Amino acid sequence: MRPREQRVGAPETGGAEQLLITGRRVPLGKTTEVMRALPDRQVRMIGAWCFLDHYGPEDLGERPGMQVWAHPHTGLQTVSWLLEGAVEHRDSLGSQALVRPGELNLMTAGRGIVHSEISQPDRPPRLHGVQLWVALPDGVRDRAPDFTAYADLPDLFAAADGVRGTVLLGELNGVRSPAEVHTPIGGADLVLEPGRTAVLGLDPAWEHGVFVVAGDVTVDGTVVALDQLLYLGPGRTGLAVASATGARALVLGGEPFAEEIVMWWNFIGRSHDEVVGYREAWAARAPRFPPVVDRDERVMEAPPLPSVALKPRPHRVERA
Ligand code: MN
After folding, report:
1. From the CB of residue 179, how many other CB atoms can be counted at a distance below 10 Å?
2. Cβ-based neighbour number of residue 11 at 10 Å
3. How far is the CA of 116 from the centre of ligand 1 (A)?
4. How far does residue 199's CA lie from ligand 1's centre (Å)?
5. Residue 103 C-alpha to ligand 1 middle, in angstroms?
6. Could you list the pLDDT tens digit for every one of the 320 residues in the chain?
7. Separation of 115 CA from ligand 1 center, angstroms?
8. Global confidence as pTM
């Protein structure tokens, strides 16, 4: 089987480590397929970023679109960012939001939230988007849940010709998003016209990633194709992203996450027993997980636990 990871830059040459990861196809809910780039076998996290799904572009003419029924989360933030189309979010706080292109929907699960994401009957004909998760650190991971939509996000570049971008979360290239974060982190959506190069300043203490959602880009001579993630280790002060044909990509970064986490299904905890407790609480519909308000629909049950104990995994795994 072809490996999904390929080393494209070696730390021994003095440059920061680079690893090219190809996303894998996985089902989401009953009707949607996504390309999942995080977690990867070799790269579990980039900073606090711990999950990256890309879906579409998909023509919904004869298809139901996104039908992700009610399900719980703990210990993380979900970042929903649409490139085309619309999806309705509802949750156990009573939030109701139509997720649309250009608006960031940030759900902070904290100690527990339940939500659903459904394409509505009057939806636009196409669907294209990403969902990312951000692990919450100790101290805030048991906080009260929250859902906030941010419609007014800052530009990644002050003025640029053929290059534009939006800072979604945290800070990148010296530009800060208003969205609430809890670790040093950054995420941006970058659009390149054909033949253009975007240059960003980076914090050398951070690790970074470039994930392509349309076209392809070149970074340090490495071509990053659609649904590929280029992992960049700490030690870089800048990044040049070029595209001959035009492209759209996410740029992610963050200080390497200091804590070990146990991530299973839709939960992030710190131990096997904690995750088992979350699973049992969801099965029992315990007060930690109230029902989604004003939406009478089906729910997703957690799968069986694996036969071996869940363990924290290293954020980066070296393989021969
Ligand atoms: Mn979810």
Report:
1. 21
2. 12
3. 7
4. 33
5. 17
6. 567 788 886 555 456 789 999 999 998 877 778 999 999 999 999 999 999 999 999 988 888 888 889 999 999 999 999 999 999 999 999 999 999 999 999 999 999 999 999 988 888 889 999 999 999 999 999 999 999 999 999 999 987 789 999 999 999 999 999 999 999 999 999 999 999 999 999 999 999 999 999 999 999 999 999 999 999 999 999 999 999 999 999 999 999 999 999 999 999 999 999 999 999 999 999 999 999 997 767 899 999 999 999 999 888 887 64
7. 6
8. 0.95
Judged by DSSP in three states, 11 sits in: helix
Ligand 1 centre distance from Cα of residue 6 (Å): 30
